[in-house]
Amino acid sequence: MPTEEQLALELLRRTDYGRVATSMRALPFLAVARHVVVDGRILLRMHCGLGHHQACVGSVVAYGADNLSTGTAPGGQWTVQFLGLCEPAEPTRAELDLFGPGPDYVDGEDFSPVYLRLTPQTARVHTLTSLTAAVSTR
């Protein structure tokens, strides 16, 4: 049986985007990020122009993703959350290829990527299932 961290990483691989949470100027904030999972760590791609990545670097951050917007998914809905140290990253060519193309614009600005690596210290999985979904998956 997989550990909670292994399950969380596997679920994270099923979606492309999540939200990183930290604080900026003593206030909490969330920022969208594209992610890929590489060697048990989470590689993030964010837009450099907003400066959100600067608040993340060297800090313990939370990163979360879910499938809640997919309606009733087979097996139910899930959310995952990771806590860990966030550091700047220089992805390899193979890691860059995992991301695929980025957006053209972010808030009207040309997209300028910056990469961060999150090493999870804790991982949590929360699931929402119904009796109907549980019976139909048997």
TL;DR of this structure?
By secondary structure, the protein is α+β, with helices and mostly antiparallel strands. It has one domain (4-136): Roll (Pnp Oxidase, Chain A). The protein has 4 helices and 8 strands; from the N terminus they run αβββαββαβββα.
Tell me what the structure shows.
- The structure is a single chain.
- The chain has about 140 residues and is α+β, with helices and mostly antiparallel strands.
- The chain has helices at about 5-10, 50-55, 95-100, 130-135; strands spanning about 15-25, 25-40, 40-45, 60-65, 75-90, 105, 110, 115-130.
- It has one domain (about 5-135): Pnp Oxidase, Chain A (Roll).
- Helix content is about 20%, strand content about 50%.
- The strands form two sheets. It has a six-stranded antiparallel β-barrel.
- It starts with a helix and ends with a helix.
- Residues about 135-138 have low confidence and may be disordered.
